[in-house]
Design brief:
Layout lengths: L1 H9 L12 H8 L35 H11 L11 H45 L10 H7 L34
Helix pairs in contact: 4-5
């Protein structure tokens, strides 16, 4: 009998008891360590008819970023989608549009690079002109270039704060830089 009780404890007590053991022995063995009778034992209250069974509230309070984190986890750890499978004509259309977009982007990039190169060349030519010009009051050649390249008032305790490097406004302008401005 003792071996059956220990085995019953191992397997969760869900096994049916052997028919050779009487019901009174198993009930006595079950209440072996109890100090009160079975009639005094606490019985949970019965639920009202039609009511849902009560559950223990084990859910932790959700943080304010719960749904954001949930969405991120779903997207980060989800498997990659399968590659596109297209018919021959659809693939040809896709490839043509893709190549046209790449060509357009390259033309934009080249135009921007050309404009930057033009602006850089203009600054270089202006600096060369300053370097070759004789300064005022008999100053040597290159004086104007050196004065233009000085960084007075940029660093140190006497420097102009970076906030005052441009005119202060409440909101940034619609156009950050007017490239069409001429003197």
């Amino acid at each position: 009998m003792a071996s059956m009780l220990s085995l019953r404890g191992l397997f969760g007590g869900r096994q049916s008891r052997p028919s050779s053991l009487p019901a009174t022995i198993t009930a006595t063995a079950r209440n072996l360590f109890s100090t009160s009778s079975t009639s005094m034992a606490r019985v949970p209250p019965k639920a009202a008819p039609g009511a849902k069974p009560m559950r223990k509230n084990r859910t932790a309070p959700k943080s304010e970023n719960f749904y954001r984190i949930k969405t991120l986890r779903q997207n980060m750890f989800s498997p990659a989608p399968p590659p596109l499978r297209m018919a021959r004509l659809r693939y040809l259309r896709h490839w043509t549009i893709h190549r046209a977009w790449q060509l357009f982007r390259r033309q934009q990039h080249d135009a921007i690079a050309k404009e930057r190169q033009r602006m850089h060349a203009g600054m270089y030519n202006a600096c060369e002109e300053l370097r070759q010009t004789v300064g005022p009051e008999g100053r040597a050649e290159g004086y104007l270039y050196r004065v233009a390249m000085e960084k007075k008032g940029v660093w140190g305790t006497d420097a102009v704060p970076i906030e005052y490097a441009r005119f202060q406004t409440d909101y940034p302008g619609k156009e950050p830089w007017n490239h069409d401005w001429k003197r």
